[in-house]
């Protein structure tokens, strides 16, 4: 799709695989949209930014997890709980706001709302960064929520 004013376009360099990808490919949850390109542990290099993007610039190394969009206005989005937004846009196999279908990290390139982009530090090994965007978040989020993310707190 076209790059909008708050979007980031990037070339995909690495993409992990998650069992969720298998569920979607086999339509085991009953809501897959075909044709389907999976992948939600994505690392890439920014090739274009929209006119209002401030978080990253062309050439930056970035990552994207399981969401590429949300309404950004509901109660859940305001509380940084976009995964509960009734209008969230999954990284793949989901209708986007413009009516197109999203395709995941096994694509050559992707477009994502700036809010869902994570900029990687220069010294980050990119191949190892992809799994952090799903498995890493899955482990870290509850640890942070329950106050276990501090050394010696578990």
From TrEMBL:
Which cofactors? Zn(2+)
Per the UniProt record, one Pfam family is ADH_N
Which positions fall inside the Alcohol dehydrogenase-like N-terminal domain?
5-122
Instruction: Say yes or no: keyword Zinc-finger present.
Output: no
According to the UniProt entry, its GO molecular function terms are: oxidoreductase activity, acting on the CH-OH group of donors, NAD or NADP as acceptor; zinc ion binding
Q: Which domain of life is it from?
A: Eukaryota
The answer to whether keyword Lipid metabolism applies is no
> Which keywords does the record carry?
Metal-binding, Oxidoreductase, Zinc
Classification via PANTHER family: ALDEHYDE REDUCTASE
User: What is the official name of this protein in its record?
Assistant: Cinnamyl alcohol dehydrogenase
Q: Which organism is it from?
A: Neolamarckia cadamba
């Amino acid at each position: 799709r076209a790059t909008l004013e708050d979007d980031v376009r990037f070339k995909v360099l690495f993409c992990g695989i998650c069992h969720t990808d298998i569920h979607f490919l086999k339509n085991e949850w009953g809501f897959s949209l075909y044709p389907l390109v999976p992948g939600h542990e994505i690392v890439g290099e920014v090739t274009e930014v929209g006119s209002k993007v401030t978080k990253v610039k062309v050439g930056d190394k970035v990552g994207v997890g399981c969401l590429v969009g949300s309404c950004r206005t509901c109660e859940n989005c305001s509380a940084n709980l976009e995964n509960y937004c009734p209008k969230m846009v999954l990284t793949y196999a989901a209708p986007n706001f413009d009516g197109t279908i999203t395709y995941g990290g096994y694509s050559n390139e992707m477009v994502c709302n700036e809010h869902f982009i994570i900029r990687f530090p220069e010294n980050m090994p990119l191949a190892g960064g992809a799994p952090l965007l799903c498995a890493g978040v899955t482990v870290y989020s509850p640890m942070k929520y329950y106050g276990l993310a501090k050394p010696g707190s578990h």
